Amino acid sequence: MMEEFYALKFKAMWKYFRKEHFSFWMICGYLFIEYVRPQSIIPALNFLPWAQVFLLLSLLGWMSDRSAKWVRDPTNKWLLIFFGVIIASGFNAYFPDTSWSHLKDYYGWLLIYFLIINIVNTPKRFFIFIAIFLLASFKLSSHGARTWTMRGFGFTSWGLMGPPGFFQNSGELAIQMLMFSPVAYELAIFMKPWLTRSRYWLMMALPVTGAMTVIGASSRGGQIGLLVQLYQSVLKGRLSLKSIILVGMLGWLIWFVMPEEQKLRFTNIGTDRTSEQRLLYWRHGIDMIKEHPVLGVGYFNFAPYYQRYFSGDMLYAHAQLPHNIFIQVGTDAGGAGLAVFLILIYRGFRTNAETRRLARDLPESGFYLAVAKGLDTALIGFLIAGQFVTVTYYPFLWINLAFSVALVNIARRQTSLSSEKAPVVVGGAATA
Question: Phi/psi zone of residue 37: left (φ > 0), alpha (ψ -120 to 50 degrees), beta?
Fold first, then answer.
């Protein structure tokens, strides 16, 4: 049973973890290394490509894990089709060398996705795996919230910085907060009956510090995503005077503590140099898609193509990526890539909906429902913030999909086991 896990009895969780298969240890090690990045914090540890080492060991371990059966899911097919479109786009690219040099930016997530969904295949494995994800993210959020508080809730042009890697820039750090905070919030609410008061408030500290980091990061897209997530988590489906007042108070509090310089950034949207450059990127990005509707200008070719053909509309020394996930995919891989990308987003929501449907017949339904809702809300935050930054090939979407597919696979297996154990009625009498 899962009650000891829901109560966060770490001794019981550790006892289970140390008896687990080597492949599970290694995929957990990868998640820790990717999100905490101790090798970046302590330079003496940076003598090996740790993430690649843990992934290789995960793959070798998975091959010997008897409990690991190949997970079949429609999302798998669409991820492989997306890879095929990227390769075709590379052959058709204006700058093929640029495309091939960035190929690992996608196929790395493809490997990680398949390892996660095939190794994280039981309720307890999933709980521990997502707990590592939440704790690693909490390290980022607590540091961000503390830094912003010590700054006197003031504004800086660089926002908040994470460790070197995917979350170093303030915009990407804010999106990671959007990816983990809703899951942490939903699990805290679900686990409350099993938790002591102190552990419950510790769980609630995760989404609170995540929200504080989003505000302190000065990312407009992240802050808009946070407001929508507050509505999704607190208000939607529970329309009452209490919830409306709560959301209103939270919105007012966010605006009250937001630095004046950040408020000014909202009032200046569309007129400051950053906004003007983004609008130019978007306009010319749409032109690129119209002119190259099938496969785009080439995978990761937006910046060199823009610099060559739209140099008159560069407000900075060098062209950047388009600061929009849909324009990035559309210019990378044309309408073909954009169509598959939209299907993958749909698959994320569709998979979580299937989890909720299956969970109704499972004894641990609350856990599945909480995680599925948190993953949905996280995906919404990614889509909103992704309209302002170029984060298609960052971990946000791909890890979210891996969590969703792993969870629905576990729900399917649990449903199948429950059906096998159900009594069969023969001639009016039930038999086991």
Answer: left
Provide the Cα torsion 66, 67, 68, 71; round to 10°. Answer: 140
Cross-strand bridge partners of residue 424: 431
Please report how many Cα atoms fall inside a 13 Å half-sphere around the Cα of residue 75, on the Cβ side. Answer: 27
- Count how many domains the chain has: 1
CA distance 348 to 275: 30
CA 256 vs. chain centroid, Å, equals: 28
Q: Rounded to whole angstroms, what are the CA distances from 289 to 105, 275, 280, 326, 384? A: 21, 21, 14, 11, 21
The answer to whether residue 424 sits within a structural domain is no
The Cα–Cα gap between 304 and 310 comes to 10
pTM summary value:
0.90
For residue 217, the model assigns a pLDDT of 87
The pLDDT > 90 percentage for the chain reads 67
C-alpha angle with apex 202: 197 to 204, nearest 5 degrees? Answer: 95
Each residue of 287-322: pLDDT tens digit?
999 999 999 999 999 999 999 999 988 888 889 999
> Residue 303 belongs to what H/E stretch?
helix 302-309
Domain span at residue 128 reads: 3-412
In a domain, 69, yes or no: yes
- Phi, psi torsion values for 431, nearest 5 degrees: -125, 150
User: Which of 157-166, 201-210, 349-358 has the lowest average pLDDT?
Assistant: 157-166
Q: Is residue 431 part of a domain?
A: no
Longest dimension (CA), the chain: 83
Residue matched to tokens 């101790």 = 38
- For residues 345 and 381, the answer to whether their CB atoms sit within 8 Å is no
Q: For residue range 59-81, list pLDDT tens digits in order.
A: 999 998 887 789 999 999 999 99
Q: Does some domain include residue 430?
A: no
